[in-house]
Amino acid sequence: MAILVGEVGWPTDGDKNANLNNAYRFYKGLFAKLASNRGTPLRPGYIEVYLFGLIDEDAKSIAPGNFERHWGIFRYDGQPKFPMDISGQGQDKHLVGAKNVQYLPNRWCMLNPNATDLSKLANNIDYACTFSDCTSLGYGSSCNNLDAIGNASYAFNMFYQVQKSNWI
C-alpha cells in the first residue's frame, strides 16, 4: 500500500517553536527522508507528500493557533524564506525566487511617540489586529519583544498595509 501525506510542513512564525531555524531543519530532514525512497519500517518505499503551503496566508483563521498563517516556504514577494534543497540529496539545488518583483514605495504607519491621550490605545490596537495580522506579536513569535509603542506601531502598520497602503 502506498503512503500519501496530504499536508506536511513547519510554520515559520506565530509560536515559540515556529521559526526559520526549525522549519529549515524540518524540511532538510523531510526531503532527505523522501529522497531515500526507504519509506517507513512498516511501509517501505516511496512516500508521496504534499507541502502544506507555498506562501503565508494572512487572512487564514488562527483558531488552531497564531502559527496557522505562517506555513509558507516563500515570503510575500516570492523569495524563499530560507535555502532549501528539495532534491534531499545535498546537491545544493535551491528554490528560485520570483523575478522582477515590483515593490510599492516604503510607507509605514506608527504610533505618534508624542501622543498623550492613550486611553483608547488598547481598543485601537484591538481593532487594527482584528482586521490585519498581528500574530507575529504573540508569545515566542518574531516580534514578541517589542515595547508598548512598538506593539501599537506594529498593529497600526499591519492594519495600514493590509487595508490600503495608498491612503496617505
Automatic annotation (TrEMBL):
One of its GO terms (molecular function) is hydrolase activity, hydrolyzing O-glycosyl compounds. This is Putative ovule protein. InterPro entries: GH, Glyco_hydro_17, Glyco_hydro_17_plant, X8. PANTHER family: GLUCAN ENDO-1,3-BETA-GLUCOSIDASE BG1-RELATED-RELATED (PTHR32227). Residues 107-166 form the X8 domain. The keyword Nucleotidyltransferase does not apply. GO terms for biological process: carbohydrate metabolic process; defense response.
